Amino acid sequence: MIRVRALREGARLPARQSDLASGYDLHACLEDGPLLIEGTPRLVPTGLALAAPGGLDVQVRPRSGLSLRRVMATLGTIDADNRGELFVTLYCLPGCGPHEVRDGDRIAQLVVTRLAPIEWTPVAELDDTSRGASGHGSTGTR
């Protein structure tokens, strides 16, 4: 269970759009009319604050429908001790032109997973693999 507090009138609870969806859509909560997204990233309010219990990882992720139109939400993590309003950073990719966000528009999604407790162990060497130290793009581009 994640407790949710509405901070603005008209704020909507995150909601799945189908029974098997893994993400819960977030809606813009705009009190002063539409918001224009152009070249500079903009914070879009949701009107919600969350109280996620420790042990959960709550992530903001882009919506594929907006991404297809070249409107991106930045990835973000909502820490368990954060009680402030949840904002989504939106921006347009080059060549997209302006995008108007209206009150109630679906702007991003929340995905919730469990955190694995990790212990970091410093070592002098790591075991070798066939990939080795090769990084970005080393396994192919397709």
Describe this entry's structure for a reader.
- The structure is a single chain.
- Helix content is 4%, strand content 37%.
- A four-stranded antiparallel β-sheet has the order 1-4-8-6. Strands 2-10-5-7 form a four-stranded antiparallel β-sheet, with no helix packed on it.
- The chain has one domain (3-114): Deoxyuridine 5'-Triphosphate Nucleotidohydrolase, Chain A.
- The chain is globular.
- With 142 residues, it is mainly beta.
Q: Could you state the CATH homologous superfamily?
A: Deoxyuridine triphosphatase (dUTPase)
Helix count equals: 1
Helix content: under 10%
Q: How are the strands ordered across the major sheet?
A: 1-4-8-6
Mind describing the biggest β-sheet?
4 strands, antiparallel
Q: Could you say how many structural domains there are in total?
A: 1
Q: Which of globular, elongated, flat, extended, rod-shaped describes the shape?
A: globular
**Strand-residue proportion:** 35-45%
Terminal Cα separation, in Å?
39 Å
Low-confidence stretches: none
CATH topology: Deoxyuridine 5'-Triphosphate Nucleotidohydrolase, Chain A
Round the Cα radius of gyration to an integer and report it.
19 Å
Pattern of helices and strands? EEEEEHEEEEE
Coarse structural class: mainly beta
Topology:
Elements: E1 3-6, E2 24-27, E3 35-37, E4 42-51, E5 56-61, H1 64-68, E6 71-73, E7 76-78, E8 85-92, E9 99-101, E10 106-114
Antiparallel strand pairs: 1-4, 2-10, 3-9, 4-8, 5-7, 5-10, 6-8
